[in-house]
Each structure stands twice: as structure tokens, then as C-alpha cells.
UniProtKB/TrEMBL annotation:
SMART domains: HTH_ARAC. The keyword Transcription applies. The keyword Heme does not apply. Keywords: DNA-binding, Transcription, Transcription regulation. InterPro entries: Homeodomain-like_sf, HTH_AraC. Gene3D superfamilies: Homeodomain-like. This is AraC family transcriptional regulator. Residues 158-256 form the HTH araC/xylS-type domain. Pfam families: HTH_18 (PF12833).
Length: 259
């Protein structure tokens, strides 16, 4: 999980996987663009990590880091900088760029790679101006999310996330995570809830449902197959969790988002 002190624009060029931004868990795929503010925890886990026989390789992307002060301290307080200031505040919860705006930003980010000096600054300003004007964005972390992670916490949560991503297809005992983090089960439960803004069981369910969504669409599995391949023990619990997280039944989800 990254905890940068700068703003970050990230575009996925290749690969698919799961993305954590604040308390948001969602799949990512080629072409997606996210904009995150300083000190917002985020982590991306490629679908091929840990697969020895993968021929696809890991995810690749373009990342642009910049400090908010590059515009000067006074601009964001003036009328000309109001929209930029609002954009920067929204980015503290993470933003997913969508629609035609994503297409335009993709071109600008690729062009920025070949620029230097004042021209690169002007191109970055074009991107930021476009983002400040558009409504084609989704805020990722929940309204109640409060970033309370310190560097040591970030590393510990990163360890937990990585462990769950490797083992979510089976039942994960709370004692395993407690031992992994050198805590008692009760202390770990409380710690995780504070830092992830959700219980550990809710977190695991979101990971499993996210995986099931991929299986429904990309592997063309039916609900029963996706259920057991994602770590659920009963189809009834799977259907309940799926509806609670996606607001759709597995069949409706597949009909709406499938090809």
C-alpha cells in the first residue's frame, strides 16, 4: 500500500487486478485513470501475481507525481484557482476518471511523457483544468473514510491485504491475521475496523465478491461456479452477499455488464 506525500495521476496501460484506495475495493483494468491526493493509502494487486505460469506479466501504467505547491501558495486561494482547489480536496478520497474525460486525459498523459520543462508544466495544467471542469469522475473512498494510517500501520495493513488476496478462496481464521500482525484476535478486529472503515469479515466478502464478478464476466461462469471458486461455502450466503455489495443478483449483474 503506497502512502505518498504528493498528488498522483495513474493510468493502467496493461493488466487487470484489484485496487484498494482508502476504504474502497474495486477491480481495475486497462485504460483506467485514478487521481489520488497526498497521504491517501492505495495498493494495486495484479491478477497474475503469484501465478508462476502466467504469460501476461504484471500490470503496467503511467504515473505522474506532483506537489500541490508547484502552482504557488496563493493561486488556489484566488478566484481563478477555486475549481482546482475543489479538485484537490476531492482527490483526498481518490477519484476515478470516466467517460470522454478519461479518453482525453489518456492522450494528454501519454503526450506528457515526451515533454520537459515549461511545456510539461503546461500539459499538466491542461490535465488538471480538464479534471476540475468535468463531472465524469467517481469519488472512491466513502464519505466517512478518515485516513489515520502512519507509516508502520501502512506496512502492517499492506501485509494483511496481501495475505487475504492470496488466501481468500478458503476460510481465513481471525487467529491467522492476529498472529501475522502480533496482536490478539480482539485487538486485530478493533485495529482493522479503525483503519479500514469496515470489519474484517466485510473486507473479505468484498474481495470474494469482486473476484466472483470477474469470474461471471471474464470466465463466463454461472453463479454456482463463481460462488465456490470465490471462497463461499453456500450459494444462499453468496447470493445475499452479492446483492448487498453490488445491488444486483449475479444473473442481473451478468446481463448488465456481460458482453
Amino acid at each position: 500500500m503506497a502512502l505518498p506525500s504528493e498528488y498522483q495521476l495513474f493510468m493502467i496501460l496493461k493488466g487487470r487486478g484489484t485496487q484498494f484506495i482508502g476504504d474502497s475495493i474495486r477491480p481495475y483494468r486497462e485504460g483506467e485513470i485514478t487521481f489520488t491526493g497526498p497521504n491517501l493509502p492505495h495498493l494495486r494487486k495484479s491478477d497474475v501475481e503469484g501465478k508462476k505460469d502466467s504469460k501476461d506479466g504484471y500490470s503496467e501504467g503511467i504515473v505522474i507525481y506532483f506537489n500541490g505547491n508547484f502552482l504557488g501558495e496563493n493561486l488556489l486561494q484566488k478566484e481563478e484557482g477555486i475549481k482546482l482547489n475543489q479538485l484537490f480536496k476531492k482527490s483526498l478520497r481518490g477519484l476515478l476518471v470516466q467517460g470522454n474525460t478519461a479518453y482525453e486525459v489518456q492522450k494528454l498523459m501519454q503526450n506528457l511523457l515526451h515533454l520537459e520543462g515549461p511545456e510539461s508544466v503546461l500539459e499538466l495544467l491542461k490535465i488538471l483544468n480538464l479534471l476540475s471542469e468535468t463531472k465524469d469522475m467517481e469519488v472512491l473512498a466513502s464519505p466517512g473514510y478518515i485516513n489515520s494510517l502512519k507509516q508502520g500501520d501502512t506496512e502492517r495493513m499492506n501485509t494483511v491485504y496481501a495475505y487475504v488476496m492470496r488466501h481468500f478462496r478458503r476460510k481465513i481464521a481471525l487467529e491467522e491475521l492476529a498472529e501475522l500482525t502480533n496482536m490478539t484476535p480482539t485487538s486485530f478486529s478493533r485495529y482493522f475496523k479503525v483503519h479500514a472503515n469496515k470489519t474484517f469479515s466485510e473486507f473479505v466478502s468484498e474481495i470474494r465478491i469482486g473476484h466472483a464478478c470477474k469470474l461471471l464476466l471474464e470466465e463466463n461462469m454461472n453463479a454456482s461456479q463463481a460462488c465456490y471458486a470465490s471462497g463461499f461455502e453456500t450459494l444462499s450466503n453468496f447470493n445475499k452477499q452479492f446483492k448487498g455489495i453490488t445491488n444486483r443478483t449475479p444473473i442481473a449483474y451478468k446481463q448488465e455488464f456481460g458482453n
